[in-house]
């Protein structure tokens, strides 16, 4: 899995009281009983940790953790490219 | 007395313990809970009464710390106990007929303070998306509805230190007007935060007996010098008496009357003649269909402040001077918006067991308090009619009358 996936998993475990054993790439936030408000909070934390602005709808509760990691990584890469140019 | 409402369930989370039994044991033993609080270290007053060994993960559920301020966690714990105590099952009741009314004076103040600190120190990006749902006071009633599937009328009352009693009075109306069959009514507060405690200290409202915290809350004692801040939650399950009897429920006591008034006198000081308080008491007695001479016992507001206790005592002496009086704040401190509900719960138990808990730390009764204040040990007596007084900053008075 990607660095971003590992980072999300760590955040879910340390900040959102999710059991590490429950998390798999294909599991959704809904499966983890994380609603849209939790997801907003998660994105805020990621945003603040990485110092990157993320879209509020970067992920939805029905997304898998893997998909959310991809969506966030894309935005981080775009931001990095914009910063480099 | 057909208007009397049955108390069929009770849940208590107080500095005296988690649960009705633990609280009963400590309050009736008269053992104070006030102590120096490490979370308040360095502040002008660092004494508090806190709920001991409260574990949100265990008592409320996983992730509750992420979504709920402590006042909500305390309320859920009390409500779950109360519903089980009433022999009710939220899986089978008609939730549309179940209301929730909870008193709360402050809301999620600890969350507010922590988030404000985060914003000032690290910028707005550090402010949680859950700040607002965690701090608004009405969320406590919302959470109880979600947890218990109660979809009837649902609201929070704010009358400062009378909030819990106001909530129970409002709940009685919902039942008398047949808007609900069951109401979970009570109060919740978790206001022991550095800013709030300092605010009360700056007003001069808190005891400064820092060298002897266990003796700091001493209602009606000549040496009292202010209240000790507490916290907690109390939820009563209320039903019409006829409904309670029809389903064979155990009735712990009845809440038979409610009266409310405003002093219209001063922001924080009580009317020195106790006019507003007397008006609320007389209205509550009339609502219950009993007279002043019928009152056997009063669970006083009794905050341990110099002004409150003497004004309340002179009013009580005039209206029902023959009744025994106690203030349970000597043991549990002053839980602000939850206090009236905690005392309603304790008055329910007083009526049920015909045993009055003692006022802790009453070593030398203030000569201006010309009442039979129960001290040192619990007193067995007839308690056919008991009054619970609650008075809030803002001059808001709420009085409940309980009967056996």
Automatic annotation (TrEMBL), chain A:
Domain Carrier, first and last residues per copy: 2-76
Transmembrane segments: none
Stated name of the protein: Acyl carrier protein
Signal peptide residue numbers: none
UniProtKB/TrEMBL annotation, chain B:
Domain Ketosynthase family 3 (KS3), chain residue ranges per copy: 2-404
Keywords: Transferase
Extent of the signal sequence: none
Pfam family, one: Ketoacyl-synt_C
CDD domains: KAS_I_II (cd00834)
Family to which this protein belongs: Belongs to the thiolase-like superfamily. Beta-ketoacyl-ACP synthases family.
Protein name: Beta-ketoacyl-[acyl-carrier-protein] synthase family protein
Classification of source organism: Bacteria, Bacillati, Actinomycetota, Actinomycetes, Pseudonocardiales
């Amino acid at each position: 899995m990607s660095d971003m996936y590992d980072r999300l998993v760590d955040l879910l475990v340390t900040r959102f009281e999710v059991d590490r054993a429950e998390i798999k790439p294909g599991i959704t936030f809904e499966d983890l009983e994380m609603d849209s408000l939790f997801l907003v909070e998660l994105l805020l934390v990621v945003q603040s940790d990485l110092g990157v602005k993320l879209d509020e709808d970067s992920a939805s509760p029905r997304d898998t953790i893997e998909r959310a990691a991809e969506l966030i990584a894309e935005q981080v890469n775009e931001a990095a490219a914009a910063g480099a140019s | 007395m057909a208007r009397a409402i049955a108390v069929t369930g009770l849940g208590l989370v107080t500095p005296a313990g988690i649960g009705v039994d633990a609280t009963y044991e400590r309050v009736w033993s008269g053992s104070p809970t006030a102590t120096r609080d490490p979370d308040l270290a360095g502040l002008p007053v660092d004494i508090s009464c806190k709920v001991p060994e409260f574990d949100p993960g265990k008592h409320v559920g996983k992730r509750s710390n992420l979504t709920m301020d402590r006042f909500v966690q305390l309320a859920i714990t009390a409500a779950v106990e109360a519903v089980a105590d009433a022999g009710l099952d939220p899986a089978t009741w008609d939730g549309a007929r179940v209301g929730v009314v909870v008193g709360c004076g402050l809301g999620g103040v600890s969350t507010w303070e922590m988030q404000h600190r985060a914003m000032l120190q690290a910028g707005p990006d550090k402010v949680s998306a859950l700040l607002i749902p965690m701090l608004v006071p009405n969320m406590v009633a919302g959470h109880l509805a979600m947890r218990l599937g109660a979809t009837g009328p649902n609201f929070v009352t704010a009358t400062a230190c009378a909030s819990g009693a106001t909530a129970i009075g409002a709940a009685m109306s919902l039942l008398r007007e047949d808007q609900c069959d069951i109401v979970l009514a009570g109060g919740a507060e978790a206001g022991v935060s550095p800013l709030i405690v300092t605010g009360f200290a700056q007003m001069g409202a808190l005891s400064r007996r820092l060298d002897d915290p266990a003796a700091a809350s001493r209602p009606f004692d000549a040496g009292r010098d202010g209240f000790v801040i507490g916290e907690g939650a109390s939820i009563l399950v209320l039903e019409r008496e006829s409904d309670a009897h029809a389903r064979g429920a155990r009735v712990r006591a009845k809440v038979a009357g409610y009266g409310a008034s405003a002093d219209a006198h001063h922001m924080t000081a009580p009317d020195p003649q106790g006019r507003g308080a007397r008006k609320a008491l007389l209205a509550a007695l009339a609502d219950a269909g009993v007279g002043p001479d019928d009152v056997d016992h009063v669970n006083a507001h009794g905050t341990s402040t110099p002004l409150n206790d003497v004004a309340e005592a002179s009013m009580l002496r005039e209206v029902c001077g023959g009744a025994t009086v106690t203030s349970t704040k000597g043991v549990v401190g002053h839980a602000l918006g939850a206090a009236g509900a905690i005392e309603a719960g304790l008055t329910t138990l007083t009526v049920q067991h015909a045993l009055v808990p003692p006022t802790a730390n009453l070593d030398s009764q203030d000569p201006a308090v010309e009442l039979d204040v129960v001290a040192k040990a619990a007193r067995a007596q007839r308690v056919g009619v008991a009054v619970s007084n609650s008075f809030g900053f803002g001059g808001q008075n709420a009085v409940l009358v309980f009967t056996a």
